[in-house]
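Sorry to interrupt, but I need a hand with the structure work. Could you write out one complete protein record for me, on any chain you like? Just paste the record in under my message, thanks.

. . .
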Amino acid sequence: MIQKLISLSLRNRLVVVLMAAGLFVWGIFSVSDNPIDAIPDLSENQVIVFTEWMGRSPQVIEDQITYPLVSNLQGIPKVKNIRGASMFGMSFVYVIFDDKTDIYWARTRVLERLNYAQRLLPQGISPVLGPDGTGVGHVFWYTLDARNIDLGEQRTLQDWYVKFALQTVPGVAEIASFGGFEKQYQLVIDPVKLQFYNLSLMNVMNAVKANNNDVGGRKFEMSDMAYIIRGLGYIKNKEDVENIAIVNNKGIPVRVKDVGSVQMGGDLRLGIFDENGEGEVVGGIVVMRYGENADKVITAVKKKMGEVQKGLPEHVSFKIVYDRSTLIEAAIKTVKGKLIEEISIVCLIVILFLLHWKSALSIIIQIPITIAISFILLNAFGLSSNIMSLTGIALAIGVIVDNGIIMSENSYRHLSEWQNNQVNQKEKE
């Protein structure tokens, strides 16, 4: 088989040269299309289901949320394993799929099953899917340098301006906010006053919910003009909450401020985010979408941050905490440098030892063609350019050169034998 292939190649040299040139050009374009990262993504092909039910103990979360979800997510096609974790107020379910499963097909299947499983959960509880990222998708961290603004205002700025802007960057799955205080209206109820007015906490909760809403009406026409009638009832400050009427007690309305007090505060926190021991900060984590180019995503995020900076308050700026592009560029630069050194040394040694420029050229030209073809295969198998893959290419250069030297030596041996046979035949004649 090999002899026939060699004979076919020798008879069709132009075709072989054109094929090699075509593969080389294809490989050059594949280099620019190949994702770049510092480390290979070896994480499992998983879909995360997150459910929040604040104030409940881990045992309640396990019994009423995690167990029903895990039980009903069983049986999804191509699932290897399902893991559940319960903690205070939160439930996490990890659905592990086969490595060859398309991640978005898997997310669709999980979402279909969740629509069925949600009927088994407590009323008002809705599980959601985690971002379509991987375990190594945290490619960029930043904080807000705003020492003169309190942590509540910083978190509001992060959640309602910075986060929404950065989520529009292509390749970003999620911007996870951290630090600071999430503002909320807090009702501190006096149980003695509740008992005095014969009220319950549910009465207060239902009254607050019902009075924080806009209502629609119909159109009112007058003098060839149409006016839209609607009721404005959204809460704008804590005084609006205090004046909400809960019930009538002998013709006198009982308001929220009659049974307790209202204050602005922060949501319950399970920890703080401190930077270098200098105090708390607010920021975000950029989670890269599955299969994206980490270097391009980080570059796009930095460009977007420059645009967002123009809309930030005075004396507020971004501070980069973690930037994987620095590691990516350093790793790729190191491997590329060693790759060029190895190719140069191999070429020099081949020329010195063979002392025949045609043979040396035939061996050396295999190196760039083979490297270009390797990037075609990397794209075909969905692998990125990282330390592991580029190091493998560098190690394979020795095998490529050995193969060329063996073929050249074998060709010279056969030519020498053929020439000797021709000389012997002439001497006999």
The chain has three domains: 2-38+328-428, 46-133, 183-266.
